[in-house]
Known about the structure:
By secondary structure, the protein is α+β, with helices and mostly antiparallel strands. It contains twelve helices and 21 strands.
Amino acid sequence: MTINRTVAAVLALLLAAACTAPPPPRSQASTAGATACSHPQGRLGAEKATTIDVIEQAYLCILGNYYGGPTLDARSLLTAGFLALTQEINRGGRDVPEAIMPALTGDRKADWAAFEAAYRKIIDRVPDLRDELAVVTLAGIVAAIGDNHARWTHDVERPLDYYDGDGYGLGLEANVNGSQVDGSTPRVALPPLFVTTVEGGAARAAGLRPGDIIESINGSAPFVDGEVTPAIAALYPEYPESRPVELRIRRQTTGRRWTVSLKPGLYPRDPATLRVVSSKPLDDEVAYVRLTGFTSNSANRVFKAISSLRTGRTLSGVVLDLRGNGGGSPVEATRLVSAFVHGKIIAYQCAMDDRCAAGRTDDTVELLNLPLVVLIDHGCVSACEHFSSAVKDLRLGQLVGTRTGGVISGPAQSYLLANNTLLSFPARHHLGPDREVVDRIGVPPDRYVPLTPKDAAAGRDPALATSLTLLPE
């Protein structure tokens, strides 16, 4: 997140120096770029060092395969990479006289040659930083794409003693999540900042409860003039970050104020929260199904849960809880939509020239023939938004809760780099069934029902309560 914010803040200033250069060629997504990388086949080999040749491969791969490659200003990628490079040198209390950004003209091949020449001069002066500088340079280039589905997967670490199902961090969730402060999603959130869930770890040990107001994080306010601040990112540390986070807490039920210091670490999570699909009857006639991700076979698991709840009772409808659903397989999202409608277009995948391929329902899926209400929030992203936008546009049911996260630029494709790391980004971008843009904007609910601190403290779920009023009795 640090790279994203830094690039966004400084990139415009650096590009301004090149404002007299000609615009980037529109048709220069060269054959070399398109063939610079390929999709991975089988297991990856051991990760190797990142080099300038790997950085070049990634640069060409982006320009040749990313859906925005034909119109992308390649100078922005190189400038961001150079910025990350120089900042990493400075972070170590050093600098290099040769660390001067070369003039860029908009010719992608010539600009790369100039960049590489400057890069090699710098590395020759600080050979002990060779590996670190290559990593931050490539990470800066990928971040500069500005796409929420663009990733460079490398140096994947898990903490010692980790087992599948462990959580890592402070052990809490708040009403504003990490993605809302990293620049990839809409920064719309309302104060106050408060705890919504205590999962375990340091938060549980400190006695925090849902509904507790977080007044400051490491001495900084979480909101300024109604806008979220980067301070909130400290609530969601990732391994190996281990610095304690100081929170000023107010318990609204008693008025008590105190300060806690929470150290990130591993913590076991409740096995019930790890289930991708969970279900129960509500009022003995409504099927409540919670789906936390569109993983392999998840649609069939939802169908099985509803079928089981249908045994011995007549259902009046389905409440599908997609809050916090991080997405996953578009195929599974399509199959789930197809249980509520047949013969419809549910999304479009489009190239930059507006040539679009229509995604249609899978009419081999049996219709459930049940009224539907879907619970959504800002944690519903990617394939979850694929499903939600189809429900809204095709009027398959009511959406209840708050706007989704707007993290659905397009289905990501993975590409193998020479050092056995993976670069991924969309080859096409996503539009909803009505050809509306969902990425960065999100899907609005039909009934806006936010969670309040008082609701969280009392264990109330106003969105779920509202959903039950929308189904026939």
